[in-house]
Amino acid sequence: MIEIKDLHVRFGAVHAVRGIGFGVPRGGSFGIVGESGSGKSTVLRALSGLNPDWTGTMKVAGQALTRNRGKDFFRRVQMVFQDPYGSLHPRQTVDRALAEPLIVHGMDDHEKRILRALAEVALPPATRFRFPHQLSGGQRQRVAIARALMAEPEVLLLDEPTSALDVSVQAEVLNLLADLQERRDLTYVLVSHNLAVVAHLCPMVGVMQGGEMVEQVSAADLRAGRTVHPHTTELRRLSTELEEA
Description:
This protein is of the alpha/beta class and 245 residues long. The protein is 38% helix and 26% strand. The mean pLDDT is 90.
């Protein structure tokens, strides 16, 4: 479903992503971990179309991506951001936030689709007419996920989707994402600094350091400590949560 080869991203003199590559099968998940500044979120922004300054090859469902993406791409590929409060308009109700993608993509049956989306992310119908500040952090992230699903995408790009949440709520959102993936046959690329979060959802993990993907390792090998690159070993050592995953 996703194929990336020799991806480079530069911001002026800064070479933020240095020739990385990976693939994700349809209905599969791939995680990218690394410290702040490693380039992991930059990869996601290039793939999503938010950052047009890249070179290399990126394909989704066999179609080569260019700097300019059409409506079809944005219906097929959606992104969920780190901060649900920042990604939701503070003066728009949940109803408006969920209706907006339907309007943009010319989809009908708004009432039915909105109620179904709320049910899918385990939010009561009354949530529909609330504003973001009236919701908890976990509820806001569920709304953000529901909004990403409105256009019926095939790919979700998840940029630190649980890092702004309490640990107990993190687990709920990760379980929700796992259920949605199975139900909708979604393909995920998940970016996080937390190895436990990535290993929970992704069978394969790419480890980034200084703009390079220094290792690709299975979640099973990661848990067992069967790593090759010293940076992966160090990240695993520092991740106390991994043992609880």
